[in-house]
Amino acid sequence: MSEHFDVIVIGAGPAGYHAAIRAAQLGLSVACIDDFIGKDGKPALGGTCLNVGCIPSKALLDSSKQFHNLTHAFEAHGISTKDAAIDVAKMVGRKDKIVKQFTGGVNMLFKANKIKPFAGKGRLLKDRQVEITAQDGSTQVLGGTNVVIATGSAPIELPFAKFDGKYIVDNAGALDFDATPKRLGVIGAGVIGLELGSVWNRLGSDVTVIEALPDFLAAADADVAKTALKELAKQGLKIELGAKLSKAEVKGKEVHLTYAGKDGEKQLVVDRLLVAVGRRAYTDGVLGDDTGVKLDERGRVLVDEHCWTGAEGVWAVGDCVRGPMLAHKGFEEGIMVAELIAGKPGHVNLDTIPWVIYTEPEVAWVGKTEKQLKDEGVPYKTGSFPFAAIGRAVAMNEPAGFVKMIAHAETDRILGVHLVGANVSELVAECVVAMEFKGSAEDMARIVHAHPTLSEAVHEAALAVDKRAIHKAN
Questions:
Q1: Is position 211 annotated in a ligand binding site?
Q2: What are the positions of the active site (predicted)?
Q3: Which DSSP letter does residue 157 get?
Q4: What structural domains does the chain harbor?
Q5: Mean residue pLDDT across the chain
Q6: 315 membership: H or E segment, kind and range
């Protein structure tokens, strides 16, 4: 007879390991299956986020920022340096050490919570049986009262620019270059393309970003996107919009690109090419026959607002279901499902999930953009405030950007907050809290913010909604 668990989680990425840990905390017996293999050839928990996504990219972003500041920004502070150099191998090694620390941390949490990990690919069968196929091809079957599908997502590969792991790479490959490429091509001006493009640009690479859409950061507020584009261009990132790649050919040690730009067909030669055109739900081979679980036209598992698939005892969370492909969204869905399984209330509000792009300056937002509200016919008013008028930002020599707050024209309820500037990845949190508690711009305006801090920009933006900002002409 197969081993039986109260909860079987397929996938140990952000959504999966949160579901597993919370279910175990609630007294349920839990198994977690994952097929990720780390750089050392051993199974590694944490999924894309910890291994080749959120955590390693932030490690490289921080390293490259330190180097860029040393070579470009410190002089303004009266700090001079000579012959600065970057040891790429050491930088990548530091990144790997951080990854190992955090994946090992998840392993320790599994042990502490008595979660049983299984290395291999999980496949849901009927009656909540789960087949595990190990790397050596051997199989075993577990039985579960509940099954949580948390298989995440995978990078989209273009048929005319297939990944070879060396010259044409995905996000994982761009985290592991052994040297700074002299010329780097990036296909896609989304989060991954901009962040990793920034890393190598700061280290001296000549970076060209090719984006098919005519608008930069179309999902973000238009004013924020405009400022971000201007600042990134100042740093040397070449961003071509409305440009569609049609061919990528490796010749010798170069990649020859052909793409259709605004002025007709263009050619570009680079030393490395990062393809970052988005991600797709990783559900290939996850469902057996007669499971009762269905996929949509994009390969995502169909679920309701509580991540239930409609099949008894089967749930799905994270990147493999609807909603934004963000680790923190997966965290909360995993926790919600574990609590629902244990008979407790659970809920995730998809309307107040923050977005962050860790470029320099950072971009962050929560809620609706002006365009969305216009399209929906919602009456609104806005207030914005520049970091250039914030003492802390100027003292830090990071005055670029602003905070824009959007409130309902009649009720004053905050409908969206859009930020571009230093550390806005942290500032957006109070905006999320205010929106989650149905706060108004007036509420935010009356909350005391410490001086001098960057958070004063949020306070002043709230005041500006009613044209009463103190430190700018309204």
A1: yes
A2: 451 (proton acceptor)
A3: P
A4: 3-154+280-351 (3.50.50.60), 168-277 (3.50.50.60), 361-465 (3.30.390.30)
A5: 97
A6: strand 314-316
